[in-house]
Amino acid sequence: MTRPVFIYEGDLVPCELDADDTVSLEGTEGHHAATVRRIGVGEWIDLIDGHGTRLTCEVLSTSKKGLVLRVDQRVIEPQATPQLILVQGLAKAGRDEQAIEACTEIGIDQVIPWQSEYSVVRWNGSKASKGKAKWESVVRAAAKQARRAWIPSVGDVVNSKALATWVEAKREAGGKVLICHEEATESLSSILASDPTSFTTASSLTLVVGPEGGMKSEEVNWLQDAGASLVGLGANVLRSSTAGAVGATLLSATLGRL
């Protein structure tokens, strides 16, 4: 049976713990493990810190507060390179959350929320912090589901002008930025097949996915002027919730992660 994964948020530093050390899992994660999942003495779990540390632990005791664990093994998983980044346009009906959930399970390393000109959903004022917190919660849950030791970071929401500046910096640092667009003349799969090395050696790979209403031509021009390239994802027009997942899968396969 696959060991369940829980996120440690206590005072100890997981990467400094070693075999036979004892650690307590309390708080929300501990309560969920002990009360909801009803994990008992003698069972095994994985404890992660979200930054690459994975502890394989045996349950020594349980309480309403959580679990007391004995560390059996510590593994430090290196961060994947190149980084896979998803710039996801804010979308209605929770489609943006569906997108980042699926992409986290596939293996995306960072998520940037983008408030496009055509985004119906707007993260203005206090909604920005609430929206980011919601995305962080979605990403954490998806990372646990996928049993990842690394939890993708969620950036602050950006508008189109700020995104163009960000894209330019990524390109100058040796990264590739790809805009998923139905009017692209080349498909991502054909580009990857013709020149896989340029992707495996890039400093980062970024997928830009617009909202349900698409992108304004001015936005596309700004991003292309900053160094981004248009790519297609096949003959069918994909929703905002699925385009990133298809692109991330193709990139992950090229990188040998699947």
Automatic annotation (TrEMBL):
Membrane-crossing residue ranges in chain numbering: none
Catalysed reaction, written as an equation: uridine(1498) in 16S rRNA + S-adenosyl-L-methionine = N(3)-methyluridine(1498) in 16S rRNA + S-adenosyl-L-homocysteine + H(+)
Top-level division of the source organism's lineage: Bacteria
MF term (GO), any: rRNA (uridine-N3-)-methyltransferase activity
Residue span(s) of domain Ribosomal RNA small subunit methyltransferase E PUA-like: 25-71
UniProt-listed Gene3D superfamilies: 3.40.1280.10, Hypothetical PUA domain-like, domain 1 (2.40.240.20)
Keywords recorded for this protein, A-Z: Cytoplasm, Methyltransferase, rRNA processing, S-adenosyl-L-methionine, Transferase
Residues of the signal peptide: none
One Gene Ontology cellular component: cytoplasm
Pfam families found in the cross-reference section: Methyltrans_RNA, PUA_4
Top-level EC class as recorded in UniProt: transferase
One of the GO BP terms on file: rRNA base methylation
Residue ranges of domain Ribosomal RNA small subunit methyltransferase E methyltransferase in the record: 82-250
Enzyme Commission number(s) from the entry: 2.1.1.193
Record's subcellular location: Cytoplasm
Family: Belongs to the RNA methyltransferase RsmE family.
Function of the molecule: Specifically methylates the N3 position of the uracil ring of uridine 1498 (m3U1498) in 16S rRNA. Acts on the fully assembled 30S ribosomal subunit.
Name of the protein in its database record: Ribosomal RNA small subunit methyltransferase E
Organism: Schaalia turicensis ACS-279-V-Col4
Lineage start: Bacteria, Bacillati, Actinomycetota, Actinomycetes, Actinomycetales
